[in-house]
# Entry
Amino acid sequence: MQLISSAASPFVRKVHVVLHETGQIADVEVLGVKTSPVATAAEVAAANPLGKIPALLRDDAPAIYDSRVITRFLDARAGGKLYPEARIWDVLTLEATADGIMEAAVLMTYERRIRPPEMVFEPWIEAQWAKVSRALDTLNDRWMSHLEGPLCMGQLAVGCALGYLDFRHDARQWRKDRGTLDDWYAAFSQRPSMVATAPTD
Ligand SMILES: N[C@@H](CCC(=O)N[C@@H](CS)C(=O)NCC(=O)O)C(=O)O
# Structure
């Protein structure tokens, strides 16, 4: 299989983390691409009509895309431990929360990197940060028992989302007044799968 990938993408990182956690690293060849909403790489468009990464090219079946689909596929392929049926709705909601943080944070990055400076719309950037901020408060106030429980995809996704905030939005200081989440992440980010997949430009 081949994974269309970029070392800076938090959505791609989710997939790499799952490959590490489930022992499937050797089954996937990484195809690095440079792509953006205004300059979609040809290999990305060929694999995913939405023009987004990650996309997974399977050897004997059509390409699949959207990180949530790929992570679930890879987990099922490895025996299915990261989406436990008994807690499935919590796991999926936690993963959706983490993905929503990434989505808003990536849009903030694009707004500054891609738009000409005179077209950047500051209230829109702040509105995206408000989504991130509310989601972080919710993680800190309501999700800690789940985050501290047995390993699941929701936890891995939250780890990737927080890692992306450190990578691109450090100045926003997400840790302030969220000491419980900060403590959890300090330990979680030391997992070998997290260390091996830290984002780079
Ligand atoms: N919901 C998608 C989001 C993926 C996504 O937004 N990826 C970004 C890179 S971090 C991308 O490919 N952006 C290009 C674009 O929006 O056209 C997923 O979970 O895979």
Summary: Residues 9, 11, 35-37, 40, 51-54, 66-68, 99, 106 surround glutathione (CB under 6 Å). Residues 101 and 132 are 5 Å apart (CA to CA).
